[in-house]
């Protein structure tokens, strides 16, 4: 999947396009660095989204507290229901390594776009 095309599609959603990083989120990213933010994204996705039946699916991703959480809502990578709706990833299995990589790439592309906004 092309991240630019995905971000353009998501931008047509009033709900998805309503999410933006705040100055304190950008400060956090600048202080930690993009490599650390990417590691955080992998950690969150592997623990909270990759399993077949994640605990509290649909409620596992807060809407604040970390830039990756905001990015997950903006990119419809916040729960398995959104992954299924937007990316056609089935519920009945764990995410593959390739899918995890794709999710993190989309999150990081959105964060980069927000920083450059």
Q: If helices are DSSP runs of H or I spanning 4 or more residues, what is the number of helices?
A: 6
Structural class: mainly alpha
Termini separation (Å)?
23 Å
Helix content: 55-70%
- Give me the Rg, rounded: 13 Å
The arrangement of helices and strands along the chain is: HHHHHH
Please report the total strand number as a whole number: 0
| Spans of at least 5 consecutive residues with low confidence | none
Total domain modules: 1
How is the biggest beta sheet arranged? Answer: none
Q: Beta-sheet strand percentage?
A: under 5%
Oligomer: single chain
Shape: globular
Give the integer mean of the pLDDT values: 94
Task: Note down, in words, how this protein is organized.
Helix content is 59%, strand content 0%. It is built from six helices and no strands. It has one domain. The chain is an all-alpha fold and 117 residues long. The mean pLDDT is 94. It has helices at residues 3-11, 23-32, 34-48, 67-74, 80-87, 97-115. 26% of the residues are buried.
């Amino acid at each position: 999947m092309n991240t630019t095309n995905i971000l353009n599609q998501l931008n047509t959603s009033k709900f998805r396009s309503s999410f933006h990083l705040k100055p304190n989120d950008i400060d956090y990213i600048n202080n930690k660095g993009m490599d650390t933010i990417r590691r955080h994204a992998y950690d969150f996705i592997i623990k909270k989204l990759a399993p077949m039946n994640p605990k509290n699916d649909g409620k596992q991703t807060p809407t604040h507290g970390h830039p990756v959480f905001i990015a997950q809502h903006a990119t419809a990578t916040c729960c398995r229901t959104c992954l299924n709706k937007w990316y056609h990833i089935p519920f009945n299995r764990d995410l593959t390594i390739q899918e995890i990589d794709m999710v993190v790439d989309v999150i990081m592309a959105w964060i980069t776009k927000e920083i450059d906004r």
